[in-house]
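Q: Convert this sequence to structure tokens.
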Amino acid sequence: FRGGVHPPHSKITVSEKIQIAKLPQRAVIPLRQHIGATCEPLVEEGDHVKAGQKIGDSTSFVSVPIHASISGTVVGISTQLSPTGDEVQSIIIESDGKDEWVGTKGIDPEKSPKEQILKTIRECGVAGFGGAAFPTHVKLSPPKEKKIDVVIINGEECEPYITADHRLMLEEGEKILKGARIVAGLLGVERIILAIENNKKDALDYLRSLSNGSIDVVSLKTKYPQGDERHLIKAVLNREVPRGGLPFDVGVVVHNIGTAKAIYDAVYQGIPLVERVVTVTGDVHVPKNLLARIGTPFSHLIEECGGFKGEAKKIISGGPMMGIAQYKDVPVVKGTSCVLVLNEQRVKIAEEKACIRCGKCIEACPMGLMPTVLAALVRKKSFDTALEYSIMSCDDCGCCAYVCPSNIPLVQLLRYGKVCSRSLGKESR
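A:
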């Protein structure tokens, strides 16, 4: 694919096996952790809940239920800050320390009708692990006129620092492959491609041995942001998703390897999505890959990794390229892949200078945009013109800001421009 950059990998937790995080004393569980409609609470303050119990749901098709991640008492239902920067109605559960679970029961995907499998995936609250957190049952229900012929399982994990997917491939490979086969069966697709960057040779070798040729495990040259499904489709199949379009439009469905594992858990075991692997890294004393319950405060995970190493200047949800800096303690949600801590030695606020028209941002942009022009339009509040220059196609990858010699905050400006365009009721062009 065109553009892209090669930032340092900084995968300092790549050899750290997944550890089960300690249960939090209190879990804050937002009722919207996915693209689509916010769930309505199904419990009230004072109710006792068990882990895996459904506590929120929506009648909207583009939504998934929310489940309790610990057993205990609902002590509050209030608006809380999410790692995405949104304030979301959330259910606060005080742990009873028992970790009691509701009963779960899986189904046999080979003997169950498609509708039952999709219902099971939805009822277990599965949403995409790749960042967008798109409801998985929706992605597995493409329009009838869209002919899907390839499923790609995304094992790229191209963002620096994050190793959660890498460890999951090494430790849960069989479940990932079974989840991938469920996806292919639902879509009526025979060809499954598992795409992994070549800086993960151990995962490539291991999954090739497990698949025994039934799944095409392909190695790709390491390049950021290859994990974006549009760029991945281009790199693997040389198919280009049209601007404003979806992978459906070129006959492809892409799922993250973490999503494939969650699909396995839901279908074979009936286990709802109440925990995920989170890389806790950067300037903490003992960086780790932790299997953390949804709703666990970031501070709890940082403490479990030995606390801050030096004075923390930034705590980022996600990686350094696309992550969101936090200004207060927030909980782990379904889309949380990493908690990145940066101390005073790593965080430097560079002085912004005038654009020198070097064109590096244009060369690096994998979407073929002109970031410096868009940034200037946003500053002038010329949102109509910015739409004409396809600002809504920006995927916030950060390549433009990474290469800018003038330190222009291009990503922040373009994000602001997109938010303003949406608030004005503008449509993507």
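The chain has 13 helices and 17 strands.
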